[in-house]
Amino acid sequence: MVQKLGRLKESPSQTAGPYVHIGTNPNFIGIHGLYAADLGSETVPEAVRGERIVVTGRVFDGGGNILKDALIEIWQADADGLYPGRGEHRGAADPAFTGWARQPVDGVTGDFRFETIKPGSAPYFDGRPMAPHITFWIVARGINIGLHTRLYFGDEEEANATDPVLTRIEHRGRVPTLIAARSDDSGQPTYTFDIHLQGDKETVFFDI
Amino acid sequence: MRNDNASYQDGAFFQRDRAWHPPAFTPEYKTSVLRSPQKALLSLGNTISEMTGPVFGHDMLGPLDNDLIRNYATTGDPIGPRIIVYGRVLDENARPVPGALVEFWQANAGGRYRHKKETYLAAIDPNFGGCGRTITDEEGRYWFRTIKPGAYPWPNGVNDWRPAHIHFSVFGHAFAQRLITQMYFEGDPMIWQCPIVMSIPSREAVETLVAALDRAASLPMDTLAYKFDIVLRGSRATMFENRKEGN
Ligand SMILES: [Fe+2]
């Protein structure tokens, strides 16, 4: 016999289900009076440094159908590549920036839309720079465990070409699933990031 | 996964045990069929992007946020068995996780959700909203008061029913720890008939989601108590730490 390690097991994940909005975005579905605003729906304050951008897209299932009930969270560094919140020991991030946002997709069109700032570059664990990116976490009915992925920026070709994560993707044809194209047509820089849960265009999801 | 020079205490999280969690594709739960990635996940050692996470302060909480009996009531208390749910948020090293935002949502005592997509015949309770939130204290503890939710039918099999449950969303200290799960109630035979529960591969893992009835913690003539601990991923950082993680 040997000594016991005494570790606990992580609580197993269960789907967020169809009614996740009740818990996360009650105002979005008309439950008012509990929270002044849905957490994560706040606009980025004026004081935050950085280029204002819009990130938009839709989530598709394996049949090409647009999900109308998904919930998306994003987590990102500030304009200097520093993370707000816990775990950042390289310096203080922009104090006006939370780095986190959450939005349900639109119940009719399935569109999601985040108004945020473009993050700076942060280092990989070996010190090499990672290209600017935004972490995405997707939950919904039928998704048994939250899906992690990253949005990379289409106008960062040089940084993307040497990014330590993107260059690890063996099937090079799948790299574009993580790269959002930029458009300035609306006057506001807009990146479109469609997420495909399954199929030929399946987004690269991460086990982190 | 790490370079030779990285400190052993650099904070990376233990690899997630994917065999312990439900797989993405669980055909008995029909909606998962088209919503499950089929390609291998890209395994990625933690980077700063996953080892950091947002902070939520106690000042964001309203006084009734952890009281689902009162936070939506207008004409009286909601119908149903009054319960307290309490427990701790821990990591895999059995260390408390203080300052963790815990959000919860549930059906009312009749099994009906306050949601426009809900079509179950059971009545809406005018005094029950069905959601709340709290933040763990320095010892990782949390509690809230609510009514015990009812079982409800759902469109999957012709006659599938969910056991009584409360949904939980938990933020730890890092985005790598982000978790959504569900709590079930001790002694409920319907747990073992539910395709969503049974998406979890082992009985042992399911049992970690079943809250224990705690008669000692119950309030006489008032409220039954259920204990529900939640475990988030642990890291090499908290293994060696003497100070509390609360920074
Ligand atoms: Fe539910």
From TrEMBL, chain A:
<dbReference type="Pfam" id="PF00775">
    <property type="entry name" value="Dioxygenase_C"/>
</dbReference>
<protein>
    <submittedName>
        <fullName>Protocatechuate 3,4-dioxygenase alpha subunit</fullName>
    </submittedName>
</protein>
<dbReference type="InterPro" id="IPR050770">
    <property type="entry name" value="Intradiol_RC_Dioxygenase"/>
</dbReference>
<dbReference type="InterPro" id="IPR000627">
    <property type="entry name" value="Intradiol_dOase_C"/>
</dbReference>
<dbReference type="InterPro" id="IPR015889">
    <property type="entry name" value="Intradiol_dOase_core"/>
</dbReference>
<dbReference type="GO" id="GO:0008199">
    <property type="term" value="F:ferric iron binding"/>
</dbReference>
<keyword id="KW-0560">Oxidoreductase</keyword>
<keyword id="KW-0223">Dioxygenase</keyword>
<comment type="similarity">
    <text>Belongs to the intradiol ring-cleavage dioxygenase family.</text>
</comment>
<feature type="domain" description="Intradiol ring-cleavage dioxygenases">
    <location>
        <begin position="55"/>
        <end position="83"/>
    </location>
</feature>
<dbReference type="InterPro" id="IPR012786">
    <property type="entry name" value="Protocat_dOase_a"/>
</dbReference>
<dbReference type="GO" id="GO:0018578">
    <property type="term" value="F:protocatechuate 3,4-dioxygenase activity"/>
</dbReference>
Automatic annotation (TrEMBL), chain B:
<keyword id="KW-0223">Dioxygenase</keyword>
<feature type="domain" description="Protocatechuate 3,4-dioxygenase beta subunit N-terminal">
    <location>
        <begin position="14"/>
        <end position="45"/>
    </location>
</feature>
<dbReference type="GO" id="GO:0008199">
    <property type="term" value="F:ferric iron binding"/>
</dbReference>
<dbReference type="Pfam" id="PF12391">
    <property type="entry name" value="PCDO_beta_N"/>
</dbReference>
<dbReference type="Pfam" id="PF00775">
    <property type="entry name" value="Dioxygenase_C"/>
</dbReference>
<dbReference type="InterPro" id="IPR015889">
    <property type="entry name" value="Intradiol_dOase_core"/>
</dbReference>
<feature type="domain" description="Intradiol ring-cleavage dioxygenases">
    <location>
        <begin position="52"/>
        <end position="234"/>
    </location>
</feature>
<comment type="similarity">
    <text>Belongs to the intradiol ring-cleavage dioxygenase family.</text>
</comment>
<keyword id="KW-0560">Oxidoreductase</keyword>
<dbReference type="GO" id="GO:0019619">
    <property type="term" value="P:3,4-dihydroxybenzoate catabolic process"/>
</dbReference>
<dbReference type="InterPro" id="IPR024756">
    <property type="entry name" value="PCDO_beta_N"/>
</dbReference>
<protein>
    <submittedName>
        <fullName>Protocatechuate 3,4-dioxygenase beta subunit</fullName>
    </submittedName>
</protein>
<dbReference type="InterPro" id="IPR012785">
    <property type="entry name" value="Protocat_dOase_b"/>
</dbReference>
<dbReference type="InterPro" id="IPR050770">
    <property type="entry name" value="Intradiol_RC_Dioxygenase"/>
</dbReference>
<dbReference type="InterPro" id="IPR000627">
    <property type="entry name" value="Intradiol_dOase_C"/>
</dbReference>
<dbReference type="GO" id="GO:0018578">
    <property type="term" value="F:protocatechuate 3,4-dioxygenase activity"/>
</dbReference>
